[in-house]
Amino acid sequence: MKRLSLLFSILLAAVSVFSQTNPEYKSQEVSDDRIPVPVLIKHLPDWETKKDQAKITNRIEDVRRDFGNAAVLSSFEFDAGTEAVYADYAEGRLLIVEFPTPQGSTAADALIQAKLAESPDAIYKRIGNYNAFVFNASDANAANALLEKIDYGKTVQWLGEDPYFLQRFERYIAMQGRDMVISTVLFIAGVLGTAALIGVFGGFVYFRFRQKKQAQWHRFSDAGGLTRLNLDNLSE
């Protein structure tokens, strides 16, 4: 059993070394189409026209060599599982580096920003876990527009039962209950406010109507010669 474990470890090490030194690197993440294409390539702008000439690698040394040892590329290293893809565009040479975790991308972003402050030799933007560069850009606006076209469409799906389904359902019920209470309170307040405004307006109109009618009344004496006191100011 120990010999089998040792042999298995040696095979894993050999595969790891081979994958790091193999110039014809194959991406670990490919699409499920009839003709598999690395997902990272499919996130390039206009990837259909660039897929044949795009290069993908998991070695920072390959990237540095192909980009003439640009200063900004010396500021960070590839973590295990990091991949890079690059292709030429009219706006410049686009490089996308995908780190396997947000933490790795964030750490690299800080180093890249600091290096670019010293020697701004590329147009740069962090997009999700992508750290994207445009080298040899003829126009900064065009290079930024090219970066905006990068499709970062990562999704996470559970292969089995979602362990957070109950928590999300409870949160949904709580939020729906909260919204219902708020809507009910606002509706009641609106009804009461409307009723109050209608009451004030109706009372004012009735008051003005009574005042106008009172202005048309006159005191009078009855047939017996007695004067009737108009104490309520409403009778003729």
Question: Can you walk me through this structure?
Answer:
A 5-stranded antiparallel β-sheet has the order 1-2-3-5-4, sandwiched between helices. The protein is elongated, with a radius of gyration of 39 Å. The chain has 2 domains: 22-148, no CATH class; 165-236, no CATH class. It has helices at 2-21, 39-42, 47-50, 60-66, 102-118, 140-148, 165-214; strands at residues 55-57, 83-89, 92-98, 123-127, 130-135. Strand 2 (83-89) and strand 3 form a beta hairpin. It is α+β, with helices and mostly antiparallel strands.
Q: Which SSEs are present, and which pair or pack?
A:
Blueprint lengths: L1 H20 L17 H4 L4 H4 L4 E3 L2 H7 L16 E7 L2 E7 L3 H17 L4 E5 L2 E6 L4 H9 L16 H50 L22
Antiparallel strand pairs: 1-2, 2-3, 3-5, 4-5
How many domain modules?
2
What's the main sheet like? 5 strands, antiparallel
Overall 3D geometry? Answer: elongated
> Roughly how much helix do the residues carry, as a percent range?
40-55%
First CA to last CA: what distance? 121 Å
Strand content: 5-15%
Q: Which parts are unreliable, with pLDDT below 50 for 5 consecutive residues or more? A: 10-23
Report the mean per-residue pLDDT as an integer.
80
Spatial strand sequence of the major β-sheet: 1-2-3-5-4
Radius of gyration: 39 Å
Q: Would you tell me the structural class of the helices and strands?
A: alpha+beta
- Helix count equals 7
SSE topology string: HHHEHEEHEEHH
Number of strands: 5
